[in-house]
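Researcher: We're teaching a course module on how sequence relates to structure. For the next exercise, students receive a sequence and then see the predicted structure as tokens, so they can try to spot secondary structure elements on their own. Here is the exercise chain.
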Amino acid sequence: MNYSDIDSLTELGNRRMMQTRFAQFAGDREQFGLILIDIDGFIYFNDRYGHNVGDEKLKEIAKLICQNLPDGIDVFRTGGEEFLILINNLKMAEVVLLAMRICKAVNQNYSHLPPLRSFFCMSDCSYVEVALPLTVSCGVAFYPEHGVDYSTLYGAAEEAALRGGKRLYGGVVGVAMNLDGSCFLPSTENKNTDL
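Model: And here is the predicted structure for the students to work with:
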């Protein structure tokens, strides 16, 4: 493995490695899943606790993500507080269940931290005060159904997480829209699924 393909903080694959893997998967022309994982309100966490503590949390969350995946699945750190997983050889429902498992594991692991406060401004200049616990939200999209290039597929996963409620409260899993509509799944209150 080339060190230029590794994120120095988390020791996960970086964006460069992810793009290589995406090209390999897309070249096979078979369905695969993309899970976008974003730490909710991480900018506020860094502001409150400092970047050194934030870096430690990034490393911890990277380990938690990896611990909740089957062996052989690569996880990439693609941005400051953003991770991405590409998964082939699984059915769509299995990919969504993995996203739910990751979301639930991270959210439960950090539930003891006091939530931070943020304000969500509305177009009429009113605002909503939002409590931000340290959680992650996931967006799930599938090749080729939701896109055949990286930017389109990534955009579908990002939009799924945002439509799922990430902007206001986080800790959500959203699935990209398809012909049958979209679904948003509870990640922490799901009593019917033992993950």
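Model: If you want an answer key for the exercise: The beta strands are 32-39, 75-79, 82-88, 116-121, 127-132, 136-143, 172-178, 181-186. The chain has one domain: 3-186.
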